[in-house]
Amino acid sequence: MPQAKSSNWLLIGGVVLLAILPLVFVKGEFSGADGEAVEAITTIDPDFEPWFESIVEPASGEIESLLFSTQAAIGGGIVGYVIGLYKGRNAPPNR
């Protein structure tokens, strides 16, 4: 049992390091993939015009961030539920 606890702490420490190290060592601006895609497309074809416009445009960047984080939270909840469901099915019965 002590081996499992130390293994869990190593995994938690690794996740924390993976989250913090890029913020400390990477200098520059963190931007989304949408801006990078637009830049790449206009570099390849300066006359490119999109096929369609967005149906709904968020009023501000904060609302856009809220919608994105809500989408991520719902997706994470679904993934966590499915993992828990399958883990529970494979668990031995309580005695």
Descriptive labels:
69% helix, mainly alpha, 95 residues, single chain
Map the helices and strands:
Blueprint: H1 2-25, H2 33-44, H3 61-90
Account of the protein in words:
The chain is mainly alpha-helical and 95 residues long. The protein has one domain. It contains three helices and no strands. The longest helix is centred in the C-terminal third of the chain and has 30 residues. 0% of the residues are buried.
Low-confidence stretches: none
Largest β sheet strand count, sense and barrel closure? none
Query: What is the approximate shape?
Result: extended
> What string, H for helix and E for strand, traces the elements in order?
HHH
The tally of domains stands at 1
Q: How much is the average pLDDT?
A: 86
Please tally the helical runs, counting DSSP H or I stretches of 4 or more residues: 3
Rg estimate, integer Å: 21 Å
How far apart lie the N and C ends? 20 Å
State the secondary-structure class: mainly alpha
Q: How many beta-strand elements?
A: 0
User: Which strand-content bin applies to the residues?
Assistant: under 5%
Helix percentage range:
55-70%
Which oligomeric form is depicted? single chain
In short:
The chain has 95 residues and is mostly helical. It has helices spanning 2-25, 33-44, 61-90. The protein has one domain (2-90).
